[in-house]
Fold this protein.
Amino acid sequence: MKQLLIPIFFLSTSLGLRAEDGHQLWLRPHAAVPVTVVAPAKNSVLLATAKQELQQGWQGTAGATVTLTLKKNKAIKYDGFQLSAQGVQASTERGILYGVFELLRRQQTGQPTTNEVSNPSYELRLLNHWDNPDGSVERGYAGKSIFWRKDSALVVTSRDKQLWQEYARANASIGINSSVLNNVNASPMILSTEYLGRVKAIADVLRPYGVKTYLSVKFSSPVLLGGLKTADPLDPAVVKWWRGKVQEIYRQVPDFGGFLVKASSEGQPGPQDYGRTHADGANMLADALKPYGGLVMWRAFVYSPNDKDRAKQAYNEFVPLDGKFRNNVIIQVKNGPVDFQPREPFSPLFGALKKTAVMPEFQITQEYLGHNIDLAYLAPMWEECLQSDTYQAGPGSTVARCTNGSVYRQAHSAMAGVSNVGLDTNWTGHDFAQANWYAFGRLAWNSSAKSAQLADEWLKLTFQNAAGGATQPAAAADWNAKFLAPVTQLMLASREAIVDYSMPLGLHHIMSATHDHYGPGPWWAPPKMRADWTPPYYHQAAANGVGFDRTKTGSDAVSQYNEPLASQLNNPATCPDEYLLWFHHLPWTFQMKSGRTLWDELALHYDQGVQQVRQFQRTWDQARPYVDAERFGAVQNKLRTQSGNAVLWKDACLLYFQQFSHLPIPAAVEPPMHTLEAIITYDTPPRPPRAPRQP
């Protein structure tokens, strides 16, 4: 953030520790001991992959025999498996592979291998890549696309294949079984014959690790690519075009998964352009895919500029269509009703659609949570959403149970994560951002998994012995106490710290768009900009208070939630503090549950976030003896920048809101280091030079 932020100085470590660049992710190689693998005689690339992984990573008894068994078992669901110290049994070849990775993970993290069945919570566990054909990545902070590039776009190199294989292996190790290869803001080019050739090449490399390929498609492709005059989903020529295109895809990729569609949203074409419904559009594509077993994932991220509350629109559009979608359509719903904010209540669509398959969509890439700079472990946010009770079928109707088929029967279940993967050496731009890729996969497999356990696993797999230390019990105990425990706590507190220093107490969407959703901008409202794209639309700060009134006397968004939750959220006395300003516009002097005024509580949250990041810095500095030099220095520098930016968030928001509250910043809060004028000046892009007058 240039001159307003704490400068970055590279601090090289001189301890001579072994450097690692993070490319191995949580799959860092270990010296394996000999193992005999007894596998089915079936000629299968998946089984061959499982056998190879066992032989390369076995940490158990030297000379042990491990048996891989393909056998139907009613207790095993989807690609689940039964694990024992002697081997893995599964109903599918994917299940064998996932069981092998689980066996190896337990060996490496010191967890016991007990005789148990492990079933995935969701049938499909997908990464959505917002990658474009020119190699750019929308909301990507880890370099260019691993799938596409601008120059020599269709040439498949050995380096491409190696990278795709490493990517597929990482996904398989955490149970991810599907990848959408391109941006939801799709280019019709992706369905051209030339690009489908590259899709085939990618699918061929992903297949040995059980990763199925999907594509995002542009709804107007029949017009833009096929030369038709319309993309009306009920037009016979359009139906015929899509059927022909689907047939072409399956000739190239016989196990193709299906389509992801963003339509009638943010200017993207869709069925509503022709007076049709989302169901009309989704069903037309679903019918084309049905003979091949393909699926349509139809995104519910829709909103228009003419509603008084953007948060209500997806519910209003989709609930009337409940039960009208084909059984190979899944409605893909963002975790919150607005847009991947640092904290949102869960989308009211979860549980409200009772006759339609619904899947949650989480954002792994950190669009609103610090890009590739801020350390933000996101598992607590996803766990918070998945375990939220919708009450749609009584108490215990959690988001997870409403989407995995436990509450309402669904032909298919799925969970998607918007990927943070790119060409950066460490894949994710920030070494700790790898933990979010890891945690997403593990939560998609087991939606009841705990964030702390996943952090513990990831740290052990990613950092244990990274400094070349001894593996004796005393050394291991020292590492657990001085690295594992404090860094786990750092990770678990990291997302809440960002909420505190950026958008506490239910404030949301108050970032600056000037810096691509990084940094504060509660003032940001350029002339002629859509109101629902500007922060003042959401915080509604004025002399009489702050917050968005979504109560029954406001926009009535609370009524989209089931009772008793709707009444709880409607009353500021019972609404949880973390959602208070999401649902209520309250006076600056409103008395909080703590006894403090809203203004003082807000100020203390901002300051608490800053102090927390400074503590993260101290924790990481003390971890230096246990981390390789390269990754230690990289994370240290990121934390320094984050610390400066946290101060900027605090100063900008408090000084801006103080213009309306006219109240002093509490004495316990660190005084601002910047002026509001300087921050706004930096945030305002310079005007383009005026063209010279023509004679």
Q: What stands out?
A: The chain has 19 helices and 13 strands.
